[in-house]
Amino acid sequence: MIVDNGKYYVYRHLQADTGTPFYIGVGKKEGNTLDRMYRRANSTKYRNNFWNNIVNKHGFISEILVESDDDNFIKKKEVEFISLYGRKDLGSGLLCNLTSGGDVNFSRSKASIALQLETAKNNGSLKVAIDRVKKYRFNSGEATRNKPVSLYSIDGIYINTFDSMYKCSLHIGCSIASINLCLKNKKHYGIFLISELRVQKLDTTKYVLSSGKERKVCMVNPADLSIVCEYSSIIEAERLSKINERNISRSLKLRCKTKGYFWVYKEDSMKALFIKNKKISWQ
């Protein structure tokens, strides 16, 4: 239901010089001042490139169209207004919105991408357009993290198959990004090999060791420079210590603390440790 001072609102952006509508959005009121209550309507952050190009050329004015205490009602109104004005990327109207509004994921339609590629082809900039649309996924396609994967031992013995990389990451205790890296570059993850489901027979000879990831590392107590724990690789250290692999690698490279500890390679553990340009000997 429409009210005069609702918790949620639909806003419209107009070009400052011509008054032409070019964007429809929704927001939620926060705070007591007007600037905070309508922050999203007046914000220039987290806008798409089409929006930024229009604002850089024409400027913008924001208008509040509808207010309500019902979030679902506001989302329906957003869909109605976007449908009324039409989307420029679909060639059906004025708006630079890339979705139809409401509770939808940020994904572009096939028609939208096909139109952009056709226009770029005519303008001689097809390669640039292809690189740009790679950031978006089709509505009908599954996200990459939902790709089924199979898990093998380092000897190529089948262990299990998972419906998604997310479920596999929970089983192993690693990040989705690490699994995706293994799939792309065919690298070991600790004692595991990970393969796409469509691969019938796993060729273990194609897998390579990650550079620097298989060297033994040590967690060091900064108080007395004693070795707290030793791991066979950075990957094993991430899995057992629950410290991100990037943070461990950064500590190894810069000799800085992460989560309150220093990290060094095993072969360097008996050498001098340099911290803030001061040479501190190991005990």
Molecular structure report:
The protein contains ten helices and eleven strands. With about 280 residues, the chain is an alpha+beta fold. It folds into four domains: about 10-105, GIY-YIG endonuclease, CATH 3.40.1440; about 105-140, no CATH class; about 145-205, Arc Repressor Mutant, subunit A (Orthogonal Bundle), CATH 1.10.10; about 215-280, no CATH class. The chain has a three-stranded antiparallel β-sheet. A three-stranded antiparallel β-sheet has the order 5-4-6. Strands 8-7-9 form a three-stranded antiparallel β-sheet. A hairpin with a 4-residue loop joins strand 4 and strand 5 (about 160). Helix 5 runs antiparallel to helix 6 (about 125-135) and helix 7 crosses helix 8 (about 175-185).
State the main characteristics.
283 residues, alpha+beta, GIY-YIG endonuclease, Arc Repressor Mutant, subunit A, 4 domains, three-stranded antiparallel sheet, 21% strand, disordered C terminus
